Amino acid sequence: AAGVIQSPRHLIKEKRETATLKCYPIPRHDTVYWYQQGPGQDPQFLISFYEKMQSDKGSIPDRFSAQQFSDYHSELNMSSLELGDSALYFCASSQDSYGYTFGSGTRLTVV
Amino acid sequence: AQSVTQLDSHVSVSEGTPVLLRCNYSSSYSPSLFWYVQHPNKGLQLLLKYTSAATLVKGINGFEAEFKKSETSFHLTKPSAHMSDAAEYFCVVSLSNFGNEKLTFGTGTRLTIIP
Prior knowledge:
The structure holds two protein chains of two kinds.
Chain A: E1 5-7, E2 10-13, E3 19-24, E4 31-37, E5 44-50, E6 53-57, E7 64-68, E8 74-78, E9 87-95, E10 98-102, E11 106-110
Parallel strand pairs in A: 2-11
Antiparallel strand pairs in A: 1-3, 3-8, 4-5, 4-9, 5-6, 7-8, 9-10, 9-11
Chain B: E1 2-6, E2 10-14, E3 19-21, E4 23-27, E5 32-38, E6 45-50, E7 56-58, E8 64-68, E9 73-78, E10 87-97, E11 100-105, E12 109-114
Parallel strand pairs in B: 2-12
Antiparallel strand pairs in B: 1-4, 3-9, 5-6, 5-10, 7-8, 8-9, 10-11, 10-12
């Protein structure tokens, strides 16, 4: 069965650079969620999209932005990267608010 | 390797009756275990977590879970269900190995509350 695909799996960036993470939901899933998990921390909800519109917003820094495209994939853009942005970023998708499936995540390391 | 199994994909209980959501895990090392709740169109919310301290963990909204190493279980309970508890619940195991976090989610249990 198709799963939630995230790319890249690993990413290394320098401070003040920009990073773009991608999430491809399960086909026909209309909602995408983004989470950030720092080292030794619990996952933190960042933002979600339903039918290409932002549906909920969590603790997402102003340096981050995200969008959902017409094919329902989503991208998380992070600018002016800081060391503290090093984390595992994972997304989930769902249809009709249930049946969530999580991706394997993108590990971002800022050096 | 680690894995987590939520034994029920859907649980229905009547309002005011106890809730039991079952979770079994496997891990090569001592894991951290979490329960999260997700209401429709909302992000995950942490209910409680176990990190090798007390085996009975109390969380928010009257939920609690007991870590049983011998049974490799971390079941979530609540004495009396409320309508607002209707949501999807996820059991999560987190393994930190040499600074690399690995998070594994269960497939979720949908809790329905019958008025």
